[in-house]
Amino acid sequence: MSSLSLAVRDSSTMLRRNLLHARRYPSMTLNLLLSPVVLLLLFVYIFGDVMSAGIGNGGADRSAYLAYLVPGILLMTIGGTTIGSAVSVATDMTEGIIARFRTMAIHRGSVLIGHVVGSVLQCVMSVVLVGAVAVAIGFRATDATALDWLLAVGLLTLVSVALTWIAVGMGLSSPNAEAASNNALPLMVLPFLSSAFVPVDAMPGWFRPVAEYQPFTPAIETLRGLLLGTEIGHNGWLAVVWCLALAVLGYVWSTSRFAREPK
Question: From CA 185, how far away is CA 138, in angstroms rounded?
Fold first, then answer.
């Protein structure tokens, strides 16, 4: 077999391994998935009228705030799901299975590829489930065309790949699973500091740079524009640049850490 065939075969095996782990131990995925669902219901049904009045020139409209909120919740779902990847990688590193893999005749990069592809698939499934909850409570993207939906799916997948590589690097750099969970927590927290819940223009002037110059805000604004028809402006290419930069950074970080021989 060629080296490419071996890499594909071994990566597929590692992918099945990670998906089996996720199926047998679903508590981590369910816990991370529950957070965005709870936040969605909380902000829509408890704070929806107040928040919509604050950002809609005094007009309280819960359905309008639901439409505004969903894109940010979907990005938050991806950030939360990738925390599970950091924990899974750290667990593999500390429990000795990676040391055993190093002694076997398998493609070295297949371990990381299996984690990344498995995490991206979990991110997509999580987004679908959270999106289904949003639709069930009234979210509609009636202005989105087929091309808009295709671009939205592509953006969500690109964000998933980028954040997963960063999470894998965090997992490889952590001494244990608990530390990996804590180190990856910013992937869940950063959306709170973005335009997910309120527009950047409504934030205090001293805080706006924090919301503007981070990866989640352009991604959220781009997704919002694709689904709701709002102005995207320069956020589209900013989101792509952020995703590509994070993916490359995470890949280089992860592969360099993985290549180190255990002490």
Answer: 30
Centre a 10 Å sphere on the Cβ of residue 126 and count the other Cβ atoms it contains.
Answer: 24
Report the 10 Å Cβ neighbour count for 261: 6
The CA distance from 65 to 253, in Å, is 39
**Of 173, 232, 191, nearest in space to 40 by CA:** 191
CA dihedral sign, ordered 218, 220, 221, 223? positive
Q: Among residues 18, 15, 14, 73, which one has the least CA distance to residue 41?
A: 73
The reported pLDDT for the residue numbered 108 is 73
CA 71, CA 130: separation in Å to the nearest integer? 11
Residues 6+ positions from 3 with CB-CB distance below 8 Å: 107
Q: What is the pLDDT of residue 199?
A: 87
**Contact (CB, 8 A) for 177 and 263:** no
Amino acid present at 57: N
> Which residues lie below 8 Å from residue 86, measured CB to CB, with a gap of 6+?
167, 168, 170, 171, 174, 180, 181, 183, 184
CA 12 – CA 183 distance, rounded (Å): 28
- The alpha carbon torsion through 48, 52, 54, 57 (nearest 10 deg) reads -160
In the structure encoding, which two tokens stand for residue 6, read together? Answer: 């071996």
Block mean pLDDT (10 aa), the chain, length 263: 70 81 70 85 83 64 85 93 88 81 75 88 92 92 90 95 94 89 89 89 87 93 93 93 96 88 55
